[in-house]
Specification:
Blueprint (H helix, E strand, L loop, with lengths): L8 H12 L4 H8 L3 H10 L10 H14 L8 H12 L5 H12 L7 H10 L46 H5 L5 E8 L4 E8 L5 E7 L2 H12 L6 E3 L9 H7 L4 E2 L11 H14 L1
Parallel strand pairs: 1-4, 4-5
Antiparallel strand pairs: 1-2, 2-3
Helix pairs in contact: 2-3, 9-10
Length: 282
């Protein structure tokens, strides 16, 4: 096991003084109890073993070598930064979409990670100062760069669920058939909302405006899904889906498979669709 440690500036000065006495490296190492290798490495960094060595110059050179060996930031390339800026500002792509195709069409075969894009966007490295506020790339993101605040957990009015998403058939998880729907609501100002249904396999979108209560949402679900391929429904545990038993009766026994609490990524199709709708209407 290696126990090597860098010499302190004071130890370097002591070795420099001992080198001036024309002592051999083994003798210096025995006196300093540091081993032959550190003394040899320190002497080789100076101009000559008999010169007056100081720790400042070797340390400065070491720091400079360390700075030079660091990898350059990917988006420091002006051409690549311009491509990413145009995709976000002009084509309204999300960083996730750029990350998916970066290996072939954006970064010329090299990877461009999601964290790299977000880091440069939040640091303002892709902004256009001469364009004013509209030149800020962060303002062109779907959520305008705002962090999602966690709401306080609701402890009243919990609904009774029939099945959890872990009990959902394997075909629904694999997206291998039509009729596995994810549903959600986009809440607007006032008592209304937009009921959104997305098929997991085909990504077909169904939407209807209704009141944000269980009765209206259940009625809208029945109206949208009648006559369509129907295997499963995957909502969250919001109280607007409390009438799921009535929907099951009206639609011939279709089963609901509810997401776990605060696990909205378990229905990614409809969540991504909601993001596109919010971007379009805003």
């Amino acid at each position: 096991m290696c126990h090597y440690t860098h010499l302190s500036p004071q130890e370097r000065d002591c070795i420099a003084v001992l080198c001036g006495t024309r002592e051999g490296q083994s003798a210096i190492s025995r006196q300093r109890s540091a081993g032959t290798a550190p003394a040899s490495a320190t002497s080789s960094r100076g101009t000559h073993a008999t010169d007056t060595l100081r720790h400042v110059l070797p340390k400065r050179r070491a720091d400079e070598r360390r700075r030079r060996c660091r990898a350059k930031r990917r988006l420091s390339d002006p051409a690549l930064a311009q491509k990413v800026r145009l995709l976000i500002m002009d084509r309204h792509w999300s960083p996730e979409q750029i990350d998916d195709i970066s290996g072939s069409r954006v970064a010329a075969g090299a990877s461009l990670s999601l964290s790299t894009i977000y880091r440069e966007v939040h640091a303002g490295a892709l902004d256009l100062p001469e364009a004013g506020p509209e030149g800020q790339v962060q303002r062109h993101l779907r959520r305008k760069g705002k962090q999602v605040r966690r709401k306080r957990p609701k402890i009243r009015g919990k609904i009774r669920i029939s099945h959890t998403v872990k009990e959902r058939p394997k075909q629904a998880d694999e997206r291998s058939r039509l009729g596995d729907w994810e549903d959600d609501t986009v809440v607007a100002a006032g008592p209304v909302c937009l009921l959104v249904l997305a098929d997991r396999a085909s990504r077909l979108l169904l939407a209807k405006r209704c009141h944000h209560d269980s009765g209206s949402v259940s009625k809208a679900e029945v109206g949208l899904l009648q006559g369509r391929p129907l295997e499963t429904l995957t909502p969250d545990r919001g109280k607007e889906f409390a009438g799921h038993a009535d929907v099951t009766k009206a639609l011939g026994g279709v089963q609901f498979y509810f997401c776990d609490p605060h696990h909205l990524w378990q229905k990614p199709t409809v969540k991504n669709t909601n993001g596109l709708l919010l971007e379009f209407f805003s």
